[in-house]
From TrEMBL:
It comes from Paraburkholderia phytofirmans. Keywords: Acyltransferase, Transferase. This is GNAT family N-acetyltransferase. PANTHER family: ACETYLTRANSFERASE, AMINOALKYLPHOSPHONATE N-ACETYLTRANSFERASE-RELATED-RELATED. Residues 16-166 form the N-acetyltransferase domain. The keyword Isomerase does not apply.
Amino acid sequence: MSPSLTVRRIAADQGAVFRELRTASLREAPYAFGATLEDALSADAASFDATAADHAVSFTFTTFILYTEGHPAGLIEAYFDDSAARRAFVCELWVAPAVRHLRGGELLVDSAAAWLANEGATEIYAWVADANRNAMRFYEALGFGPTGEHRRVTRAPDQAESLLVRHVPTTSQVFQQ
Ligand SMILES: CC(C)(COP(=O)(O)OP(=O)(O)OC[C@H]1O[C@@H](n2cnc3c(N)ncnc32)[C@H](O)[C@@H]1OP(=O)(O)O)[C@@H](O)C(=O)NCCC(=O)NCCS
């Protein structure tokens, strides 16, 4: 039987869970993220506590956590950048290998996108490394498309990443479905 998957916004006291998931993601999929495992391991526990406390209440950035049978099994971050356009992003998406292909990633993206839309976003952006073909196909399957914007990967300047976008359906589009 498939495990049941749920997603909840991070709580202020979940710094240790956040640290556990962040280090697990960087250990398992270092190719997918800008930061390195060393960055996460060298950061002190208080910085994760502070991030969790901020992300639990902020209107500008947050984290959602995926649970399988109540155990943390993935995460995603969502934020508005500080440009004039105040673009809305999802990032740092990771699902534990044991529960992949069960729609946990989709649940995380949809939860983060719903939060961003509720805070006023009409488009949701995601940077994806060109070499990360699985993530590219994943985001495409969820309705993200190319913006034509590219940049170098900071951690690996010989590699490129592309900016994808998904439009938030308007209320009338939702009722037409
Ligand atoms: C990308 C990732 C989050 C997908 O999570 P997941 O829970 O397995 O994805 P879902 O089950 O929600 O998949 C939804 C759809 O995306 C597509 N998809 C997911 N994984 C895919 C893969 N490896 N290859 C091709 N398509 C894929 C499929 O269309 C899938 O629908 P289907 O199962 O009906 O075919 C997960 O593989 C992961 O954590 N990878 C490592 C970290 C990473 O690359 N993060 C993204 C950084 S940009």
